[in-house]
Amino acid sequence: MGEAAVSMRGITKRFGKKVLANNNVDLDIYHGEILSLLGENGSGKTTLMNMLSGVYYPDEGEIFIDGKEVTIASPKDAFDLGIGMIHQHFKLIDVFSALENILIGLPIKESEKKCRQEVEEICSKYGFDLDIDKKVYDMSVSEKETLEIVKTLYRGAQILILDEPTAVLTPQEIRKLFTILRNMKDDGKSIVIITHKLNEVMEISDRISVLRKGENVGTVLKTETNEQQLTELMVGEKITLDIARDFVEDKAKRLEVKNLTVLNPDGKKVVDDITFDLYSGEILGIAGISGSGQKEMLEAIMGLQKCEDGSSVIYNSTAHGVHELVGLSTKEIISYGLHLAFVPEDRLGMGLVGNMGMTDNVMLKRYRKGKGPFLHRKKPQQTAEKIKDELGVLTPDLEYPVRKLSGGNVQKILVGREINNKPTVLMTAYAVRGLDINTSYAIYNLLNEQKKKGVAVIYVGEDLDVLLALSDRIMVLCSGKLNGMLDGRTASKEEVGYLMTHLKEEA
Ligand SMILES: Nc1ncnc2c1ncn2[C@@H]1O[C@H](COP(=O)(O)OP(=O)(O)OP(=O)(O)O)[C@@H](O)[C@H]1O
Ligand SMILES: [Mg+2]
Description:
This protein has about 500 residues and is an alpha/beta fold. The protein has 16 helices and 20 strands. Magnesium ion binds near residues 45, 46, 88, 163 and 407.
């Protein structure tokens, strides 16, 4: 394979006294290869790569670029060495155009004309689609990611690190990204990709390095491994993946959704005349290519979207009586026991306050129960402790600022909090995005427990195998329309996949 482009030797990184994020890690990255970095939430993937991109400086160890020892003390040092990283949270300026974002921080003499021309060359060489004059606030997540990558390449990166780039992309966008990554690899670049999705790892990588509790526990060739072996390397034991699906006899109709219709700002129907019932004691799985109306539908039920005339959502519960939800405020809807855990693309942007610890973040949603926000810390503390145990949140203590936790750990708190709010209707979307396998299973178990308690659960998911194993019924959305309602116990993956991509009335 020749000399490595990057060699990390004996890298150790601590945060304070309590957190050993990386412990004596060796890692090689070669020219013209795609290396996947795999590991459970909090295993130290982002931290390790941050030491290549100059965000953190190792406590111990050496880094070599093309065989020469280097010091990377700042992002600028990293750039000068040809290392670029695309972070989990994008670092773009919203009000600037793509071009302005690319030029920002570069010497002023850098001419706009030259930049346009070079960006065009980069785009056609690797296959990017980028509108260079578009403002960032008008861009989709995928466009922002494209911009980040192009920006990094423009600055001459030979070594590209992508931290969970696929977590927020649709399957089509992932296809496109992978084509681009392959083109970059063929051009001799070194690429590191972090992802929790094993099928992606098996599709895109040449080699895979696995971190466990901050240590590199093995590097394997893609051609010589499989998903089972990778899972075992990651968690350190053989695990059997098996989702329970109980049957609840006694069901009551909780929601009667009728002709639900939502328009987007352009006047296009994003939720198109949807009608269905939701029962207590069931998990209704929602399948669909992302962007098919899942988000808007759940938001409409929660009073977060304006519904068109004729839309109706009748809610019926023993404790709260019968209500038409359309027209009610979100606050009222939440007070009736309906909860929505929507895992946003920007986990810290919505729902959690980064500077606060777990207890305070749990309290954010519960303060109504106390006399004042500071009076009742004990209950939220217990809830925080419970979430920490059930989902294995890695945090030094309950008051530790959540922004310092790994991406997956932040999300565990977000989902754990909604599930622990004792809902009667619990809607979750993309609950396991960015979570490792064991934690994902802990979430499935929690949802099942809720269902057994008589909660009506809606689960919007991306993984069809999980949807088929977990759901009592599966609703398939396609272009904002309800395109099929299937029995979760008998439906096949092919059937669901077909309904996701073929509108019935057009077939
Ligand atoms: N700035 C920081 N201050 C304190 N602790 C930190 C900081 N950054 C990371 N950590 C801790 O270091 C450990 C490794 O975190 P890291 O973000 O590298 O994990 P990860 O493998 O990327 O996880 P995920 O898959 O959840 O993104 C975690 O326990 C995390 O809480
Ligand atoms: Mg991470």
